Amino acid sequence: MTEHVLGVAMNGVTGRMGYRQHLTRSILAIRDAGGLELADGTRIIPEPVLVGRSEQKLREIARRHDIERWSTDLDSVLSDESISIYFDAQITHAREAAVRSAIAAGKHIYVEKPTADTLEAALELAKLAEQAGVRNGVVQDKLFLPGLLKLRRLVDSGFFGKILSIRGEFGYWVFEGDWQPAQRPSWNYRSEEGGGIVLDMFPHWHYVLEHLFSPVRTVTARTATHIPRRWDEKGEAYEATADDAAYGIFELADGTIAQINSSWNVRVDRDELVEFQVDGTHGSAVAGLRHCRIQHRSTTPKAAWDPDAVDTVGYRDQWEQVPDNTEFPNGFRAQWEAFLRHVVVDTPFPHDLLSGARGIQMAEAGLDSARTGRTIELGEVTT
After folding, report:
1. Closest by CA position to 48, among listed 87, 80, 92
2. C-beta atoms surrounding 39 within 10 Å
């Protein structure tokens, strides 16, 4: 059996997301399963090469997972002809320079989002990759999660009729770090280090809206730094300079209105940390990361407002769960498998650097709208 062995340079896997989702649950899971089988019976075998700044952390991860190669010298890794793919899960402000170097070295590119600090830089990366002829992709993991795959199934089937509106709620309480350690790194709350919930989450909302519904045409947003003082990993107080909550309204190209709230200062009273409610003329759905429930127009109760009587209807009990009907792999692994196929046999992969740049465009528009109080129209972005 023919094997396509691909060296994958993985930069940033000492961080939580890079380690857990991309290294152990994706690349190593694929490797340990004997590789990814293609339609012709051949297999893609990814071989990770760890890259980072901490020799101690890299050595320990390599030992723990039987990984032969690791390095703190990115240039030497990129000069290695056995490396086919460069993956980047570093903090945002460190990503652009590393991706530029990888493109110049002729490596295929797969990166976390946002792909750069600014739209201009993100478009430049997309242009460089196009000119170099390297395949490129951006992590857009939420599209591969069970709840949104079920939602896509509903959209594709015409379940909603005409879609009228989309409402999203995302967030949870991130502890300030004084009396309980924070669940997120302190750089997330420093704008000078690429932090902020708009830059972090608006690119996610962009690809969800674009791929499931329709392109985003206008952005109206308000942001806040609700908690201005936090404590870092060393227990030292610092002033938060980045937005920790954002409230956005997005008009889509087909006229649908989407409203999405994002906050690291909200206590959760919903089934999952993120939920999207889609309302249409024929039915509605509420989708989270794993589950999706629906209500068809034929089973919609006739609600009536009566503030003088106890409401005993039990509205949530009248929704139905969408069945799995298939096995759903880890969303990060599913997209890695799609990208590996794209690299080896050129299967379609719409989640490229230009798609990632459009996400940054929406984030910048959100920040501009919050600053000026205006609704921002999104123009076409090209390389």
Report:
1. 87
2. 8
Distance CA(379)–CA(358), nearest Å, equals 10
pLDDT tens string 190-216 = 999 889 999 999 999 999 999 999 999
Angle at CA of residue 213, ends 347 and 155, nearest 5°: 85
18 vs 180: CA distance, rounded Å: 24
Tokens of 156: 């594709």
Q: What is the tens place of the pLDDT at every residue in 59-85?
A: 999 999 999 999 999 999 999 999 999
- Cβ(51)–Cβ(25) under 8 Å? no
CA distance 178 to 335: 37
In tens, the pLDDT along 228-257 reads 999 999 999 999 999 999 999 999 999 999
Write down the pTM of the prediction: 0.93
End-to-end, the C-alpha distance of the chain in Å comes to 40
Q: The tokens 């690349």 sit on which residue?
A: 27
Distance of CA 378 to the CA centre of its chain: 20
pLDDT at 179 over 80: yes
Return the amino acid letter for 348: P
Residue 276: which H helix or E strand, with range? strand 274-280
Rg (CA), the chain: 22
Q: 69: which 2 tokens?
A: 């190669």
